[in-house]
Hints:
Blueprint: E1 6-10, H1 34-46, E2 51-54, H2 69-74, H3 84-92, E3 98-104, H4 110-123, E4 128-133, H5 138-143, H6 152-170, E5 198-199, E6 204-205, E7 220-223, H7 228-237, E8 240-243, H8 248-264, E9 273-278, E10 280-283, H9 286-295, H10 302-313, E11 323-325, H11 326-335, H12 340-346, E12 355-357, H13 358-369, E13 376-379, H14 380-392, E14 398-402, H15 410-425, H16 438-443
Parallel strand pairs: 1-2, 1-14, 2-3, 3-4, 4-7, 7-8, 8-9, 9-14, 10-13
Antiparallel strand pairs: 5-6, 11-12
Helix pairs in contact: 1-3, 4-6, 6-7, 7-8, 10-13, 14-15
Amino acid sequence: MPKKMHIGYDLSWTHLEGRWSIPGSWSHKVFPDIGMYKEMALLAERGLLDFIFFGDGSGIPSTWKGTRDDAVKWAVGWPRQDMSPYIAIMSEITKHIGFGLTYSSTFMHPFYVARLLNSLDHVTNGRIAFNVIASSRQADAANYGFDELMEHSRRYDRMEEFMDVCKALWNSVEPDALIWDRDTGIAADPAKVHAVDHKGEYFSVAGPLSCVPSPQIEPVIVQAGASPRGIRASAHFVDHVFAASPGLAKQIQHRKALDDALLAEGRDPSKVGILWDVVLLVEENSTEAKRRKEQLLSVIPEEAIGAFTSHQYGYDLSNLPDSFTIHEINQDIIDRNASPVGFMNMTSHLDPDKTITRAEFYDELRQHSLSHKDMIAGSAQEVADYMEEVFVEPGERGGFMIAHPPKSPRDLLNVIDYLVPELQRRGRFRTAYTGKNLRENLGDD
Length: 445
């Protein structure tokens, strides 16, 4: 019997970078209308998807030209709400779909995050996933009192300690500690409530967590580090990994690097899946899908693309010289402790030592910011062929995160009504939810 893939759906950017204005997207609504999110949660559950996901950023992009004006004008990376109350509302009208939420270990405190996620896991009856990130954006850092970005490796050192504290807190009250005995009036057994007493390089936390253990005890933990240091951090604590889709050969290499890192941590690689980030356009036929793909190139102007990509890499791309090499720019990004991995992923198909002009590079930025070159556009059969190959070759562990849909809810409807039935016909996707919480559904293949 074929192994089944898991599918998450990324709603982080549905209203940003011009998507809100495309016909078929946000009709008669504007962000942050809760009605749109309720509609998409119900649709995702009808399609039996594993979870819907919300990335986050707390700063308005201001790296481009040293100003936030273009980001504000073109809705680049802003506005963005804290989606935790939205998730609470969406969970009330659904029963099975999971919810992924993002917080930064670089800026946040583990006690606050552990307590919040415990509460959300209760509210949703065990359907929360936590995407922990190491932040590399200047605008975000400034909002938390950081004058400069933390060095790349230290961000992951802090992340590992952050997660060690969170996990200790989630397990500091044993599942059967609460008694609630009306006859004796005893609420809980003190012997089953434990201090954490953590004193580390970045955090000092006494504990225990002042909460009732949640349905999953720990939320499902996901993380997207792609550098060698990021992969090592993933192996330390994740349940599943988010990863880019830079081509099958590199995806196989990523899976191998993660497996090696998991073994070094004494963990079983078969228990940790990779959810490959993929941008899909599914239509009734290939011609319509490809027409829509080309349409996207005219969605946002150059200054919006510059604001988007400069924010992502922590580097002002408006200051590029008339000509340069990718290696030169990447070294400058490294020296600024920004985001070299993201930049290198974007330019991986280019010769790092070949001179490129500013105009040529801006064309690359347009293609990348719209995921144009890597977008999988076609009929349900064509898209399913791609997904099967990428799922099978690295070892059939995990699945996909469908990212950055151009039109919402139209593209989610197309996934549910065209793609999901095709995957089900191939035996590659569930026909019913079988777990009682998100962790069990993600473990069901």
